[in-house]
Amino acid sequence: MALLLRTLARQGTCLSRPQFGILYRHAVPMGTTANDEMNKFWAKNNKLNRPMSPHLTIYKWSMPMMMSITHRGTGVGLSGGISAFALLALVLPGNYPYYLDLIHSLSIGPALLSLAKFGIAFPVSYHTLNGIRHLFWDSGKGFKIPEVYRSGYVVIVLSILTSIAAIAYMQYALALLSEWYGPNRIKIPSPLNRHPSSLLSFRQTVFAAVNDQNQRRQIVQDPDSRGAYR
User: Fold this and answer.
1) Are the beta carbons of 225 and 218 closer than 8 angstroms?
2) Which of 54, 64, 198, 220 has the fewest CB atoms lying closer than 10 Å?
3) Mean pLDDT value across the chain
């Protein structure tokens, strides 16, 4: 605003001296422009051969720096991955059993499969635990250098342990789903293919299908009960 008033006072654009004489009396002489000052600054730095700042090559990499960068990276990756998964779930044809069979048909080795599971579980665990660490910092505690390193190591160890636990749970869940959607698959109609009257009817259909599957297994194990199942 001050620069605008000084410019108008000197140019006399749309202003008359008798009416706006106060602007002329108090106008500060204009010095160099910002562009001139910037050129002088860079010329001086080039003459003195000063390094540019920030200059990442002059910093020594440390664990807090690595965790700060990876925390932001996992946040971007998780948000993008979840958004992409939700979008693909809406636009791709087929249902869950189809893509489960597709994954099984790839014959992925157990080592590669475990690595893929760890690649999914670790970013979630790490970003969650490191986010709790950042929330703890909001209380004004844990900023001393030894505490920063100690809390960082705790986050890394807990992230690895929780990732392994999540992989074990995922293995159990996939085994259960494979049993459900195996050769004797439960025929569960998709709620998207039904009239969307209520979610309760779909849940009742799921429970009825599971109960029917259990009764079929009981018949196989106990042939004498075949007559009771009509």
Assistant:
1) yes
2) 54
3) 75
